[in-house]
Design goal:
There is one protein chain. The protein has helices at residues 38-46, 91-94, 102-109, 139-142, 145-157, 173-184, 197-205, 216-226, 242-250, 271-276, 289-300, 319-327, and strands at 2-8, 11-16, 26-35, 58-66, 78-81, 122-126, 130-132, 165-169, 189-193, 210-212, 231-236, 251-259, 280-283, 310-315, 335-339. With 343 residues, it is an alpha/beta fold. The protein has two domains: 2-144 and 306-339, Quinone Oxidoreductase, Chain A, domain 1 (Alpha-Beta Complex), CATH 3.90.180; 149-283, Rossmann fold, CATH 3.40.50.720. The strands form three sheets. Strands 3, 4, 5, 6, 7, 14 and 15 form a seven-stranded mixed beta sheet that branches. Strand 9, helix 7 and strand 10 (210-212) form a beta-alpha-beta unit.
């Protein structure tokens, strides 16, 4: 089979690999769709040491083969997945930190993980890392369970209270989904902050109350909505260094910021502005399988809308050039899906 991997700064390769076969506790998933994540593009631009197992981690597929010890899924089941539950044996698990289990993280994005991700026709992984997908959830929509779960976890990690005035910075997939989850979780007013007009319109179409450009428009909006107090909470979903300080400047004294977007670049902040406002900072990465199930249920019942975020479906042959186009902003797309069986 062919597998698409980001192998360095500005480097993408389609590599020939053997079709995988499962060990006793593993399954092989035939991938139907895999979304291109902002992390895939960041790794390409910034030259991260990017684990093959997470190059293409927004996947959905069917179980094609299973090992003799697998009991939670069977061949033909539609599944998606991410981190396994804690192993119960490592140092983190023994200290009641199972969400940071080093075994689970190693199997997800470390040396014991798969040799490729969802940018390939088949993926072999531990069966404990997957969940079943609701039968009536469209396959293309199901490919967005993973980013919806990122948003779900971010809202849970944050200090959101019912009725809060919330800003969501950056209307890429994670920002648009975080805005929806925050609204469902009780945010009083959700303000989407985004320079691109088409994405601001998409934010409004998917449930944000207000969508404004950063700068003077945002300042005027916050003055009007909060009478000068500013937002209670900001989710920084932009994934660029500049917005970290800007997010802090949007919140009131005693407010909070949740960092959701990912970048490997250094960010400059003004510490006295953080300290003088007594800002609380939360960060968020990945999610649990239980959160993934909850996000899928919210998609199924309509509380999270993902269809408006999808742009197109491409094949593996187009993947390298598409990542390069996204990296250099020659392509303005919110979410592009890959069909690794096509082409």
């Amino acid at each position: 089979m062919r597998a698409g991997l980001v192998t360095g700064r500005g480097q993408f390769e389609l590599l020939e690999m053997e079709d995988p076969t499962p060990d006793g506790d593993e399954i092989v998933v035939e991938i139907q769709r895999c979304g291109i994540c902002g992390s895939d593009v960041h790794a390409y631009v910034e030259g991260w040491k990017y684990a093959p197992s997470v190059c293409g981690h927004e996947w959905v597929g069917t179980v094609a083969a299973s090992g003799r010890d697998v009991v939670n899924v069977k061949e033909g089941d539609r599944v998606t997945g991410a981190l396994a539950p804690g192993c119960g044996r490592c140092l983190e698990c023994r200290n009641d930190l199972s969400q940071y289990c080093r075994t689970a993280w190693s199997d997800y994005s470390g040396p014991t993980g798969p040799k490729s991700g969802g940018f390939a026709p088949f993926l072999c992984l531990k069966a404990e890392r997957v969940i079943g997908i609701p039968d009536d959830l469209d396959t293309d929509d199901a490919a967005l369970i993973e980013p919806a779960s990122v948003a779900f976890h971010a809202v849970r990690q944050s200090r959101l209270k019912v009725g809060d005035i919330v800003c969501v910075v950056g209307c890429g997939p994670i920002g648009l989904l975080t805005a929806q989850v925050a609204k469902a979780a009780g945010a009083g007013i959700v303000i989407a902050v985004e320079p691109d007009e088409s994405r601001r319109n998409l934010a409004l179409a998917t449930g944000s109350d207000i969508a404004v450009a950063p700068g003077e428009d945002l300042h005027a909006t916050l003055e009007e909505v909060t009478q000068g107090l500013r937002a209670d909470l900001v989710y920084d979903c932009a994934g660029i260094p500049q917005t970290m300080q800007q997010s802090v400047d949007m919140v009131r004294r005693g407010g909070s910021v949740c960092l959701v977007g990912v970048t490997g670049e250094e960010a400059r902040i003004n510490p006295i502005r953080w300290i003088s406002k007594e800002i609380t900072l939360n960060t968020s990465i990945v999610f649990t399988l239980e959160e993934m199930k909850a996000a899928a249920n919210m998609m199924q019942d309509g509380r999270i809308s993902v269809a408006p975020l999808r742009d197109s479906v491409i094949d593996l042959d187009a993947l390298g050039s598409t990542i390069d186009d996204l990296a250099h902003r020659r392509l303005d797309a919110v979410k592009i899906l890959v069909d690794p069986t096509a082409g």
